[in-house]
C-alpha cells in the first residue's frame, strides 16, 4: 500500500516546501501538475523547479500540461455581459478540471490498495493519526 499525494501547482513555492516537508514522512509519492496556461487560458511561464526540492526528487512525479481543454467557449464582443461572465466562469472551470484530471497521468503505477489524496497545494492534510490500513472507506473528505 502506497500513499500518493496529488495537487496542482502554480507558483506557491513556500507552501509547497511546507507541504513536502510535512507530508514526506507519510506520503510515498507526490504527483504535481503544472499548466503552461492559467485558468483564464493565458500562456504562462512554468515555475516549478525540481532543483529547489531536490531532497524529494525521488518522490515527485512532475506533469506539465501544455494545452487547453476542448470545448472552450469563445467570448464574443456582441455577447451580453451575462453571457461573457458565464462563458468566462465556465471556461475557467473547464481549465481547472482539465488540469486536475491530468493527475491520472501520474497514477499509472498505482495499485488497488493505494491511497490517492487529491487537494490544493495549500490544503495540507493532517495525517499524524490516520492508519490507512484500518480505514474501510476509500473516499475521505
TrEMBL record:
Transmembrane segments: none
GO biological process, one term: N-acetylglucosamine metabolic process
Gene Ontology molecular functions: beta-1,4-mannosylglycoprotein 4-beta-N-acetylglucosaminyltransferase activity
Gene Ontology CC annotations of this record: membrane
InterPro entries linked: Glyco_trans_17 (IPR006813)
Leader peptide range in chain numbering: none
Protein name (Swiss-Prot/TrEMBL): Glycosyl transferase 64 domain-containing protein
Amino acid at each position: 500500500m502506497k500513499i500518493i499525494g496529488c495537487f496542482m501547482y502554480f507558483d506557491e513555492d513556500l507552501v509547497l516546501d511546507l507541504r513536502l516537508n510535512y507530508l514526506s514522512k507519510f506520503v510515498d509519492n507526490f504527483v504535481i501538475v503544472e499548466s503552461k496556461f492559467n485558468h483564464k487560458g493565458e500562456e504562462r511561464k512554468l515555475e516549478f523547479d525540481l532543483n529547489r526540492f531536490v531532497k524529494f526528487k525521488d518522490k515527485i512525479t512532475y506533469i506539465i500540461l501544455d494545452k487547453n481543454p476542448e470545448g472552450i467557449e469563445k467570448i464574443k464582443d456582441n455577447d451580453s455581459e451575462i453571457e461573457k461572465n458565464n462563458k468566462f466562469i465556465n471556461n475557467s472551470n473547464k481549465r481547472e478540471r482539465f488540469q486536475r484530471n491530468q493527475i491520472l497521468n501520474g497514477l499509472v503505477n498505482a495499485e488497488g490498495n493505494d491511497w490517492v489524496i487529491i487537494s490544493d497545494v495549500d490544503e495540507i492534510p493532517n495525517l499524524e493519526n490516520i492508519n490507512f490500513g484500518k480505514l474501510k472507506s476509500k473516499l475521505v473528505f
